[in-house]
Amino acid sequence: MFLFIATIFIAELIIVSTLIFYIIKADRAVIKLNKQVLEYRPQIQEVLNGIKAAVIEINDKKDLVYEYLRKKRNQWIFKTIQTVLIYFLLFLFRGKCKKAAKICQGLLLAKDVWDSIPG
Questions:
Q1: Helix axes 98-116, 41-96, angle to 10 degrees
Q2: pLDDT value at position 71?
Q3: Alpha-carbon span 108 to 87, nearest angstrom
C-alpha cells in the first residue's frame, strides 16, 4: 500500500517538475520577446503612426469619392430626364407639324454638341 502511494507521489513530482520547467522556459521566452519589443518600440510606433495617417487619408478620400459619385449620379439623372423630354417632344411634334420636329431635332443636336464639349 505504501509502495503504491510512494509511486503516485513520485509521478506527481515528475509532472510538477516538468510543468515548472516549461513555465520557466516560457517566462524566459516572454522576457526575451519583451526586450525585443522594447528595442523596436520607436520603429513600431512610427509604423503605427504611418498606418493611422493612411487610414485617416483614406477616410477623407472616401468621403470625396462618395460626393463625386453623388454629383455624377445627379448629373446622369438630369441628362436622362432632359433626353427623354426632348425625345418625347420630338415624338409629340413629329406628327403634328414638320417645322416643330426640325426645331426639336436642332435642339437635340445643339444639346449633343454642348454635352460633347469637355469641362
A1: 160
A2: 92
A3: 8
Residue type, 97: C
CA distance 97 to 105: 13
pTM (two decimals):
0.41
Contact call for residues 55 and 63 (beta carbons, < 8 A)? no
| Residue range 29-61, pLDDT digits in tens | 999 999 998 999 999 999 999 999 999 999 888
Length of the chain: 119
Cα distance between residue 14 and residue 7, in whole Å: 11
Distance, first Cα to last Cα, the chain = 100
Cell of 50: 504611418
pLDDT at residue number 99: 67
117 Rama class: left (phi>0) / alpha (psi -120 to 50) / beta? beta
Helices (H), 1-119: 2-39, 41-96, 98-116
Q: Which three cell numbers stand for residue 2?
A: 505504501
